[in-house]
Amino acid sequence: MSIAIDTAISPGMPSQAFQITPISGPLGAEITGLDLNLPLSGLDLARIRMALVKHGLLVFREQRITPEQHVAFSRCFGPLQIHVLNRFHLPGHPEILIVSNVIENGKPIGLVDAGADWHSDLSYMPRPSLGSLLHAQELPAEQGDTLFANMFRAYDTLPADVRRTLEGRRAVHSYVYRYRRLQKLSPWRADLTQKQIDEVPEVEHPVIRVHPESGRKALFVSEGFTSHIVGLPPDESAALLRFLHEHTIRAENVYRHQWHAHDMVFWDNRSTVHYAAITPQHLRRTLYRTTVEGDVPV
Q: Based on C-alpha coordinates, what's the Rg of the chain?
């Protein structure tokens, strides 16, 4: 396993004593005893990255950090990607996308339906996201959970004949495809400008990708951004994608994250997909998200 860590943030710093405890279920681990207000050593960052690859998702509890600290910590794992919906960037911090159902002065302060279907963040980019870091700002007393599915296990448990069908196949990922579908369901999605459309052209990625750090195979399609499988008739592509989606989100393959105040959740977009139903407007929910650029899937 190759681990690349930028240690420029903390040369010579002592390591923090923190614990990594696997979550019971198909993925995830909880990190306790770590304070993101304090400097991190290269060893700290290496442990975190190795845990991310191994568990697919990390939960950092009780992280009372500023947006500047959120961005700085995220940058330890690679360059950050700027979301095309610039109206929902946190002012002064374009690296942070506001995910929120809060309406102020008749307008949403953030992306209301960011998790309205299962997806891997920014899979529509030529270099999809390595991972996303979501920090809770305001949480409702009920609802608002986020669900995550393990795409390693989704691949490992595929019937053999389906695996053979998928080998070598590529699929198209499209931001506009998802945006226009969700736009029909949401009053808050304004038309994209031509400039925004031009920034996110369709891309092709392997249906089965090899994780660049673990070497494991994972499914890399989603309900959200995958429009079709290249080379298949439309009806066959749609039926196969529907099967893969239903297979992926079986209960035994899904972890439900119930948010606590000041949680930071860091998930691997190369080996997971996620979903969060829209929280009713009277239950205020706001989180800040950064995304770390990954590599070209193979």
A: 19
Active site residue 205: no
209 is catalytic: no
CA-based nearest residue to 101, from 291, 290, 287: 287
H or E element in which residue 265 lies: strand 264-268
Average pLDDT over residues 277-289: 94
Structure tokens at 11: 């040369």
280 residue type, one letter: P
* Catalytically annotated residue among 173, 205, 274, 285: 274
Query: Out of 119, 205, 245, 285, which one is annotated catalytic?
Result: 119
Instruction: Give the residue with greater pLDDT, 114 vs 221.
Output: 221
289 is a catalytic site residue:
yes
Catalytic residue among 121, 153, 211, 228: 121
271 touches 211 (CB < 8 A) = yes
Distance CA 31, CA 23 (A): 10
Strands 57-60 and 29-32: parallel
Question: Does residue 119 have an active-site annotation?
Answer: yes
